[in-house]
Structures are given as structure tokens and as C-alpha cells.
């Protein structure tokens, strides 16, 4: 049985392989690739003899899955699996497990980093003070008392909601699943968008959420509102958001995710929008989260080998 770790997983190679060895012992032969490639031919070459592949966010499209003839199990070191050809996996009998939960703390931390940076003008304040300026024009806002909207109350959305409550926010939510008794007011999306001062997105990417926050929805938001997206890029219409920011229809945005993985073209519309902080899809990536993720990756493999697969998509 061969396990191919088809890309680096963000943990030092020696530490990662030691973790794998401790959990898996001699149950599998492990092949590790320490470079990240995205072309189909190379991915097939790397995985062609693998029974098991561990992958983070490389594009495992239908051609790649089909080209890995021995593949039986895919351990995805990510929560979302929109980069995986799930239908092809099912057709080929490939079991897919993800790593839900590893980045809950990390993503929530960045959400509030983005919010506080926007509310307190941290980036422009850093610039102006280095240039001999003052606070004039940069007096910010407090979170206490703000209406905070969470779109999607899975694990990450719930943590964000709880932190928002700790800041003294009044928390609203729109979600497929309503979780009662949490001090959160559930409502429809339009009401949430028109009511809240802060909107934080925490939905998966699927047919129902692609383009969920479009020009029509953004138009419902307050001129003083800010939008935070640490979910998936295509959930938001980037051009519509950029247009709203440029015309002052909303006050700001914190964006960690885009239509494609970084590097992003320098002319991306959000790079030209005012009051916008962008980060390179890093919300999930803390030292602690990446270790948590590796633990789940290998635990998924163990459970599959024991015919007790977990975290199955």
C-alpha cells in the first residue's frame, strides 16, 4: 500500500514524516513531494502508483483522478473540497475525506484581525505615522454595539459569532441550519445584509453559494458596513464589490480569498478598491493549525485502512 503526499502540507518535512511514521508505522510506503505543482501531467505522474494520496489544495481534477489508476483513498488536507473532482472520485470508487475543524481557530482569528484593521485604520495609520503625520482623519470605530452578521454558522461561523458577542456585538445569522439557544438572531439573508454593520462570510462553495453576494445583495448593505470574506472567493462577485467600494456604497472589505489561488493578477478589481485589506488565502495557515491538519490527514488514513473511514465527503 502506497501513500503519496503529493504536495507540502505546511509542516517541516522531517516533522511531518515522523508524525506519519508514528501513526502509520509499516502499514504503508510513504512517498513525499516537497514542491507544489499544478499541471495535470505532473500530478498524474506523482500519483499514478498511489493507493492513497494526501493533498491540500492542488487541483485534483477529473483527468488527475482518472490518471491515478490505483487510487482508492484521498485524504484532503483542507475543509473545502471544491478543487476535487468529487463526481469522478465517486465514479471510480475513490473515498474522499477532508480535515474539517483544523482551521476553526485560525480563520476566526484572521476575521477579527481584518475587522479591527479596518475599523481602526491600522494600515494607513502605520503609513502616516512613519511619514510624520498624525491621527487626523483616521479616528476609527469600536466593535461594541455593532450589529454583526454571520453568513453560515458551521464551526467557524459559530466561533466568529461567539467572539463577536464577547466584543459586545449584537449577532445575527443566516444559515442553512439554525442553531438555537446561542444568543444569535437568525434571519433571512436580505434582512441580515440590510441590518448589519459587519458581514462575515463562512459558507462552503457550491452551486447555491456561488455568486451569493452579488451586486443586488451588496446594494442592500449600509454605506457604513464592511464585508469580510474568509470563505471562498467565488461566493462574492469581486467586480460588484469593488464597484461598491469605489462609489462609497459600502465602507470597506477584508478579503482573504479570490476566484483563483494566489498569485493574483495585479489588476484584480479589489486591488484598486479603497478601504480594502487583502491577504493571500492565509486565514487557515497558522503553525498550530497546520499541525492539527496533518494529524487529521494521517488519522483519516488510519481509519480508512481499518475500514472505518471518517470525515467522508
Keywords:
Rossmann fold; 313 residues; 2 domains; alpha/beta; 11 helices; five-stranded parallel sheet; single chain
Q: If helices are DSSP runs of H or I spanning 4 or more residues, what is the number of helices?
A: 11
Instruction: Report the CATH topology name of the largest domain.
Output: Rossmann fold
Q: Distance between termini?
A: 22 Å
As a percent range, the share of helical residues equals: 25-40%
- The second-level CATH architecture of the largest domain is 3-Layer(aba) Sandwich
CATH homologous superfamily caption of the largest domain: NAD(P)-binding Rossmann-like Domain
What average pLDDT do the residues reach? Answer: 96
The class by helix and strand makeup works out as alpha/beta
Can you tell me the number of structural domains? 2
Please state roughly what percent of the residues sit in beta strands, choosing from under 5%, 5-15%, 15-25%, 25-35%, 35-45% or over 45%: 5-15%
Main sheet overview = 7 strands, parallel
Task: Give a description of the structure.
This protein has 313 residues and is an alpha/beta fold. The chain has two domains: 2-102 and 286-305, Rossmann fold, CATH 3.40.50.720; 104-278, NAD(P)-binding Rossmann-like Domain (Rossmann fold), CATH 3.40.50.720. It has eleven helices and twelve strands. It has helices spanning 13-24, 40-47, 62-67, 86-91, 104-119, 122-130, 155-166, 189-195, 215-218, 238-246, 287-305; strands at residues 2-5, 29-32, 52-55, 73-76, 95-97, 147-151, 170-174, 185-186, 198-201, 226-229, 252-255, 276-278. Strand 4, helix 4 (86-91) and strand 5 (95-97) form a beta-alpha-beta unit. The radius of gyration is 21 Å and the shape is elongated.
